[in-house]
Design brief:
247 residues; alpha/beta; TIM Barrel; eight-stranded parallel β-barrel; 15% strand; globular
Amino acid sequence: MKHPGNPQDRIIFALDVPDIELARSYVKQLDGLISFYKVGWELFLATGLGFVKELKEQQLKVFLDLKLTPDIPAQLQRATQTLARAGIECMTVHGNGKTIEMVKAGRGETKVQILSLTVLTSMSEHDMRDLYITGSQGASSAHVSSVEEFVDSRAHESLQHGADGLIASGLHAAMLREKHGNEFLLVCPGIRPSGVSHNEHQRAATPTQAVKGGADYLVIGRPIRDAANPREAVKKIIGEIEEGLSV
């Protein structure tokens, strides 16, 4: 999967909906505007790989966001093999370097891109301290004192172990590009156009901010799904992306 050139192609629309008919309705509404769709746990549990294959039959791209976590190596590899055979463009991993290596082994010769999650955009620094990820009370990670340091550390480990890209807040995009270069894909969730509620996202960024910082793809759900006119919402986002690219 290459770095996108067209501003429109940078949008990954999050199909975080509970059933296949609603998902199909959004795909139909956004025909000609959106070509890349995220399928997460909610829709995957309702439809399995059936809807993923349906999207692929329409020549659409799929970002499968299941956040594969550490497991028995053989099980993790076999699960990855099954998912990769569906022809998806990319999939997410939420684990350490060994987890990434196991998923890569399961990918085999397919072209699916392995994207490593740095930290959920909904997690605050307080949340991370509660989980002993940051701060002096976390004995296993006492060297990490902030969200930014944790993101940088996770990025370094992920790329060292062969991840093709990273999932990170658009607010961290510039830092990640400065420290880790331009050879990896950078996908940013928690994107909120100007004037739109951040909802639960602690580190939301606008499309302009994220792209200006070096983001390749922007994962956007509610600002499009909840809009009175989803097509017009997408067009507005494209305008903000263009603004970020022109700076």
